[in-house]
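Let's study a protein:

===
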Amino acid sequence: MIHIGQVNTLKVTKQADFGYFLDAEDYGSVLLPNKFVLEGVNIGDDVDVMLYFDSDNQLCATTEKPLAQVGEWSMMHVVGVNNVGAFVDWGIDKKDLLVPFSNQRVPLTEGQNILVYVYSDSASGRIVGTTKFNKLLDKTPANFEVNQQVELLIAERTDLGFKAIINETHWGVIFKSDVFGKLFVGKRLKGYIKAIREDGRINLSLQKVGVAKMDDLSEKVMHVLETKGGFLPLSDKSTPEAIFTVFRTSKGTFKKTIGGLYKQGKIRIEQDGIYLA
């Protein structure tokens, strides 16, 4: 089945001076221009191509990979604005993606870098983008558990911290007090469910919460020490950035963890770092 706005595998059926024709099933033949033909392609070969409609509503094929296919999010650069909406660089030659005014959460201006969701408009059949994510996400209660690991996409900075899309289905919030490391809109990372509130809203954490957080980090510290010959140049005096680089955790959690390991007699804490006892 052919999927417009996504990468499809099509068979080469004919060669012409200006390119190759591919079998697009119910859509007929589609031309892959010479400038997009990969070396060594022959009639009968299968090629992976992105399919889209141009401004004349003609089906086009390219071996270029878009920043996001239909059904995906990506950061994109606004290259222009006219009377129908904003156009963003989609990663396809001579084919910018339209974000109509009706799909803009706030008015877009040329030069911005924004997070865009790509979809196929059911009314027009055109591939367009949107920054209105609320209508895309599930409004039903989430079936998550506290400390469950999830995939996060940072979607918005707010006064409270950051809003993130959880497993591409629900909204969640990372409060400022739970932020460490560098977060920015468009970043993808793993996180954890911190709490599900009575109103159904979800609080997120970048590390496990409670005792599970400490136990998890204790295992990581011991493992890294064992693989590094029993020494790490990190201690409770190290910078938050240095600790985050190695363990992806906050300095506060790291200090509590090595303090616990020290009390258990598993490590020594010296001025230059920590040692296996």
Summary: The first helix runs from residue 211 to 227.
